[in-house]
Amino acid sequence: MTELCFVSADGGSAFMEELLEVVADAVRTAGGKARTATGKYPEAGSDTVFVVVPHEYFVTAPDADFPTPEQCRRTIGFCVEHPGTSTFERNAELLSILGGAVDINTDSTAELRRRGIAVEHFQLGYSPLWDLWGGDLDSPRDLDVTYLGTAERRRSVLLGSYARDLAGLRTRLLTPPHEPMTTARVDFLPGKAKFEHLARSRFLLNLHREQKQTLEWVRTLEAMTNGCVVISETSADVDPLVPGEHLVLARPEALGAVAAALADEPERERHLRSAAYGFVKSLDMTASARRLIDLAASLGSAPAADIAPARALATSLRNPDDALAVDTPSFDARFAGDRSAGGPASARGTALSARIAQRAAGARRVASRRWEPAAASPAGSADVDVLIVRRTGEVDPDDLANDLLTGTVLPRRVLVGEDGVHPWPRPRAYDVLLHDTPLGRGLTRNALLERSTASWLLVLDGGMRASEFLLERLLASSEGADVVHCPVADPVDGLVGALPPEERRLRKLPYLGSGYLVRRSLVDEFGGWNSEVLFEGLEDHLFWRRVASAGRPTALVQQVLLRRLRPDPDSRPMDLDPHRVWAAVGSAL
Question: Residue 76 in contact with residue 102, Cβ under 8 Å?
Fold first, then answer.
């Protein structure tokens, strides 16, 4: 009997490894012989046929592990990518060296055949390895809405636009970077943890990646198998699923509103959950598994293909060690860390940067500063002071302060620093520090810190708007953490600050900024925020670098509780001389 050996790349995606294990289990159920392996193709007999996900295995595996021409001839490509994505194109090129191929999607099967590539369709279906729910319609679900998908600008902008619709729901958006995810982290749940998460979630939002228009079948089946109702943007290949019966389809801009509406229709939700589970249970993978067994047995003695072009392609696509996802946005609207410092240094930029620094230093020596106390103090019960600094180009903080002072949990005090901005004189519900000329965000924030007395500080920038649940949700996640933060919706970049602090990522990219709740004791330990003019705009990046390097505990609340207008700051040293500024960041820690 032909043996199928499903091979995953060492260091590849845990998602692909899980999928191959599910298919191997289906092969065994169909009476075939199957095993799984990780890394280099294992020693095998003459009756062994290998199965790999081409775009994942060949690009992730080191060059030394690339299979021989004879092994490639006895390999079946297991294809999962849709047309309209770069990974589909990569996959199509690599199939030329393999003995056969199957594809889980009808659209990609058709497109590969159109290109002259022999491929069979593999219909995914129910797997007991996915099912941690069991069909109990009365089981409790403590999460209303979830999302599981790698970050990408289009998806990110859409998720940010759902903030108001989802504000009152219990939401968890898991948006890891588009990098191989091998182990569990706060934004990536592999295997059992993912299925448990789906079994406690009422709704799953589903958005397409890049230009594709077809349904994410694996994610959809995993959700339905665990009773999580799928709300997806319109998809081209939902058959044999019936929209409105097994899942809900809507315009991508409307998914948040649809989820909020369905949350108020428990009977319809229950019907969708039941119908979808019954549908998935009716999808038997046994027939597809038998076709895979037959395909493996049919691989004849045709001559092995020349693998040199495919090997060269895989090598060219291989990411360098410690590569970062290109879709991760900088928190700063202008500055992108290493990405900003990619070109040659400009003598003119260096000179302008030095001039700005000199002018700011002079302004700090002569600038006037004064406090205007609040007309009325909030009757807040939380041991939290809010620190807001408005710089030139940011909108009046009145609306943001009002968001906080009418929220479900009220702060003890709101302190606002108007740094070189001259607000219209009027009574305000917060203390205001006025600088007649810009002195810098770090210096202004430290002055607010001196006036603060609370144990926790909520650190925000001007130009933001807050959900009424912001403080409540941050405080609820603060046990055992020194810093609690959440994604911020940006109209251009989508979700910024949506990842946990990682030292390796922070060394390359200032992806975390304001919008965090921090223990006063930690800020005091750090000596406040950096106030050097050279690092204007990087005060929070330097703060996060210190948090990460010290290994301080943090918590990421995975719901969009803050929005901001697109900031447009005045020219700063880091905009004009990025090489010098970014090089100096490390020495400032």
Answer: yes
CA dihedral 479, 482, 483, 484 (to 10 degrees): 0
Confidence of residue 425 (pLDDT cuts 50, 70, 90): confident
Give the pLDDT of residue 302. Answer: 66
Model confidence at 180, pLDDT cuts 50, 70, 90, reads: confident
Q: Is the dihedral of CA 48, 51, 55, 61 positive or negative?
A: negative
Can you read off the two tokens belonging to residue 549?
């390097």
Question: Are the CB atoms for 95 and 77 separated by under 8 Å?
Answer: yes
CA distance 544 to 511: 10
For 250, phi then psi, to 5°, come to: -155, 170
Contact 397, 416 (CB under 8 A): yes
Strand stretches in 420-527, DSSP E: 431-435, 456-461, 464-466, 483-485, 488-490, 494-496, 516-519
Mean pLDDT across 511-528? 98
- Of the candidates 517, 480, 483, the residue with the CA atom closest to the CA atom of residue 501: 483
| DSSP β-ladder status, 413-419 and 384-390 | parallel
CA dihedral 269, 270, 273, 275 (to 10 degrees): -110
Terminal alpha carbon distance of the chain: 63
Joined together, the tokens standing for residue 327 give 């879709």
Which residues make Cβ contacts (< 8 Å) with residue 126, sequence separation at least 6? 221, 225, 280, 281, 282, 283, 284, 285
Question: 408 to each of 83, 404, 468, 470, 560, how far by Cα in Å?
Answer: 46, 9, 6, 8, 16
Q: What's the count of helices (H) and strands (E) in the chain, helices before strands?
A: 22, 23
Half-sphere exposure in the Cβ direction for 332 (13 Å, CA)? 25
The beta strands (E) that lie in 534-576 are given as 554-556, 562-564
Nearest residue to 281 via CA among 130, 104, 137: 130
Closest-CA residue to 546 (of 558, 528, 560, 563): 528
DSSP 353-392: HHHHHHHHHHHHHH--EEEE--SS-----SSEEEEEEE-T
The strand order across the sheet containing 464-466 reads: 464-466, 562-564, 488-490, 494-496
